[in-house]
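User: Could you check the structure of this?
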Amino acid sequence: MKLQDLKGKVAVITGASSGIGMAAARALAAEGVSVVLAARRKATIEALAARIGEEFGVSALAVAADVAQEKQVRTLFDTVRERFGGLDLLLNNAGVGIAGGFETSKPEDWRTQIDANLYGVLYCSHAAIPLMKQRPGALIATVSSVGGKLSAPNWTVYCATKFAVSGFSDGLRQELAGDGIRVSLIHPGAVHTDWGHGVPPEVMRERREAIQALHPDDVARALVYVFAQPAHVLLDDIVIRPSLQLTL
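Assistant: Sure, the predicted structure tokens are below.
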């Protein structure tokens, strides 16, 4: 069974201004996918869209949006409807992680993580579904984390949001199967990105180097592989981590 030809399909990537989101946008564009880049950093995604359009010859559109803000998400997907008429892939990639012991944590940090990691997925998925019907092989893919499989001290709220996303995605998978919309979770382990708050950058860098952390392109390739499966095939729960990463 051959993989799908992705040329001409349309994808929305949230958190597209850096890391996994940026790598995913480039990997999809290399396959001929028109990409809509969503992130809060307007200038960054506009520059990225210009580079992608020039390098790969595909349509690349930048839309500034904070996924934690419902109105901004609605505007994002209204723009997709007006520009492309439909959608084949939503990559829920935007997210926030704030480290620290729960006892001394701040409720505003809980809300920041819940709003981005959970409500952002809900808002984007809800807005995307009507645009994905009657699009063979349509896929809602969410970047979760190995922290959505196993929790860890100092990351309790972050992990809680990722566990919630797992439950949501499994239920959504069952709801949308009859509409031909696939739902998949990708759980990366340690990745060389600027992700993570509350841990000194040099400490995070040393940890990642010690276990030969993934690069964003590694996760992007996994996403393209999941998306390119024939329309009747679903890889619904993927864990991708450095081979030296034994625990969370």
